[in-house]
């Protein structure tokens, strides 16, 4: 989902400006999309432990970074991108998106209401 949104943004930049955007040019989306993806991971995790939710956020952010790099590389096929630039961009995307996805997981976890605890009654005496 997130990589697709970034891909649409890249396509828009390519059509209108003739180049792909850097992360600094689209910084609001760079912050917002991973945070939302992390929140979706938490909300979709059901009864998973916090550690598993964080691992899910890490997987979400890292995969978004890799997929976004693949989309950018496919769109820039006419503009020669060096392997070094592609690898560096991929590592930065993985790093930033992973951190922000985990922040989204934790913020959502903190803002969720506490589960209701039902009293367990035992008739055994």
Using the alpha-carbon principal axes, give the shape: elongated
Helix content: over 70%
Share in β-strands: under 5%
When the domains are counted, the total is 1
Q: Give the strand tally.
A: 0
Average pLDDT value?
88
Tell me what you see in this structure.
The protein has 125 residues and is mainly alpha-helical. It contains four helices and no strands. Helix 1 runs parallel beside helix 3 and helix 2 packs across helix 4. The longest helix has 29 residues. The chain is elongated. The chain starts with a helix and ends in a 14-residue tail after the last helix. The mean pLDDT is 88.
Question: What topology emerges from the helices and strands here?
Answer:
Blueprint: H1 2-17, H2 27-44, H3 50-75, H4 83-111
Helix pairs in contact: 1-3, 2-3, 2-4, 3-4
Summarize the structure.
With 125 residues, the protein is mostly helical. 71% of the residues lie in helices and 0% in strands.
Which features does this protein show?
mainly alpha, 0% strand, 125 residues
């Amino acid at each position: 989902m997130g990589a697709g949104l970034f891909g649409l943004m890249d396509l828009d930049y390519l059509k209108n400006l003739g180049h792909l955007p850097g992360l600094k040019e689209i910084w609001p989306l760079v912050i917002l999309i991973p945070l939302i993806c992390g929140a979706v991971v938490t909300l979709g995790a059901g009864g998973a432990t916090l550690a598993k939710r964080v691992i899910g956020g890490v997987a979400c952010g890292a995969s978004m970074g890799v997929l976004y790099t693949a989309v950018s590389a496919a769109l820039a096929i006419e503009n020669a991108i060096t392997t070094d630039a592609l690898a560096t961009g991929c590592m930065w995307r993985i790093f930033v998106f992973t951190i922000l996805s985990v922040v989204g997981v934790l913020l959502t976890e903190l803002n969720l209401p506490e589960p209701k605890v039902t009293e367990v009654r035992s008739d055994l005496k």
